[in-house]
Amino acid sequence: MMRGLLIAFGFLTRLPVPRVTWDEKGQAASLKWYPLVGLALGLLLAAVAHVLHRVPVFPMAAIVFTAWVLLTGALHLDGLADSADAWIGGLGDRERTLSIMKDPRCGPAGVMSLVLVSLLKVSALTALPSAWLLLLPPLLARGALVGLFLTTPYVREHGLGDALRGASVTACRVAIVLTIVPTLCFGVAGAVSLLAAAFVAYVWRTACMRRLGGFTGDTAGAMVEMIEASVLVALLIRF
Q: Is the pTM of this model over 0.85?
C-alpha cells in the first residue's frame, strides 16, 4: 500500500519521497492514490497563497503559479505542449499525431498552449476569493486521471502509463468517490468545479477517442492542465 502511495507522489510531484522499486505492480497500485496527491498539492498551494495574502495580487498569483509548476515538475505542461503540437500537426491522422507526440521539440502550437493556460491560471489566481479553493483544481484533475484509465484504452505500447492498466478497478472507483465527496463539501463552488472538470474530461476524452482510439500519457497530461484551468475559471464565474 505504502509503495503505491510513494510511487504516486514520486511520479506526479517533485516532493522528496523515499526511494522504492518502480515495478509494474507498484505502478498499478499507485493509480488509486492520484487524487490524494492532488489534494496534497492543493493544500500546499493554498498554504502558499495564505502566507502571501498580504502581497499584491499579481505577484502573489505569479508566485503561487511558479510553486505549482515546481511542485509538479511541469509534468503535465509538457503533455499539454506535445498534445497541442500533435493535434495541429497531425492533420487528423492517427499515426502522424502519435509520431509528433514523441518529438521532444516544442512547436508554435505547443508554445501557445503553454502561454494560454499559464495566462488563464495566473489571471484566475489574482481573483480567487479564497485560498482554500485551490484544493479543488489539482484534486479534480488527478481524480479525472483515474477515471480516464478506467474508461479509455491506453494506446501507447510500453509507455509510462502502460503499467497503470493493471490497477484495481474497485480501488480506483473508491478513489473517484473520495474525489467527489470532499469536492461537494465546498457546496455550490464544489458542484460548479465538479461540473467544469467533468465537462472538460468528457470533451477531451471524446476528441482522443476520435483521433487516436484512446489516450496517451501526453493527452492525459493535457487533460490535467485543461481541467485545472477550467476549474479556476469556473470558480470565478460562480463568484
A: yes
In the structure grid, which three cell numbers stand for residue 164, read together?
Answer: 497503470
The H or E element that residue 16 is part of is none
Cell 526511494 belongs to: 19
What angle do helix axes 75-89 and 217-238 make, rounded to 10 degrees? 100
DSSP notation for 82-144: HHHHHHHHTTT-HHHHHHHHH--S--HHHHHHHHHHHHHHHHHHHH-S-GGGGGHHHHHHHHH
Count Cβ atoms within 10 A of the Cβ of residue 206 and give its class: 0-12 exposed, 13-18 middle, 19 or more buried: exposed
Q: For residue 215, what are the β-bridge partners?
A: 154
CA-CA-CA-CA dihedral for 147, 77, 222, 2, to nearest 10? -10
Q: How many residues does the chain have?
A: 239
In whole angstroms, what is the distance from residue 35 CA to residue 136 CA?
10
Q: What 3-state DSSP class applies to 154?
A: strand
Q: Dig out the grid coordinates for 205 from the structure.
A: 476524452
| Mean pLDDT (10-residue bins), the chain, 239 residues | 89 92 86 97 97 94 98 96 94 92 90 97 95 97 97 83 83 96 95 97 97 95 98 85
DSSP structural state of residue 158: T
Under DSSP, the state recorded for 73 is T
DSSP secondary structure code for residue 52 in this structure: T
